[in-house]
Design brief:
The complex is a heterodimer of chains A (17) and B (97).
Chain A lengths: L4 E2 L6 E3 L2
Chain B lengths: L12 E3 L3 E6 L2 E6 L5 E4 H10 L6 H11 E2 L2 H17 L3 E3 L2
Antiparallel strand pairs in B: 1-6, 2-3, 3-4
Classes of the chains: A mainly beta (17), B alpha+beta (97).
Chain lengths: 17, 97
């Protein structure tokens, strides 16, 4: 438990390049 | 076109070949040679992408993430399913038996 990283919501960003 | 998929927990998922991948500030950024689009998968999306270098099921992915991140199983499952569906819609992964 002490080793776990903070969760961030998954997303797939399509970059406008 | 209907891009929706019915994804089972035990279906094998792998990367589609033909993507250029780079790490930028801890996030995985990818260029698809096939469709000419750039994607930012984020940090955890990058972890999933690396797992998919070899065939994995969504169950495999969820179990791996649960050992690494502070998240409850339901949230993780829901988001992994949605993320995998998006990858499939963009033609970035293969879903098999």
């Amino acid at each position: 438990d002490g080793m776990k990283r903070r969760w961030e919501n998954l997303s797939l960003e399509v970059l406008d390049i | 076109m209907d891009n929706s998929i019915l994804l089972a927990n035990n279906q094998m998922i792998t990367q589609v070949e033909g993507n250029l991948v780079s790490d930028m500030d801890g996030e995985k950024v990818m260029f698809s040679i096939t469709n000419g689009k750039y994607y930012n998968l984020g940090e955890i999306g990058g972890v999933i992408w690396e797992l998919l270098e070899n065939p994995h099921t969504t169950d495999d992915i969820v179990m791996d993430l649960l050992t690494k991140y502070e998240v409850d199983k339901k949230t993780c499952e829901d988001q992994v399913f949605a993320f995998i569906s998006l990858l499939h819609q963009e033609g970035l992964i293969n879903i098999g038996e």
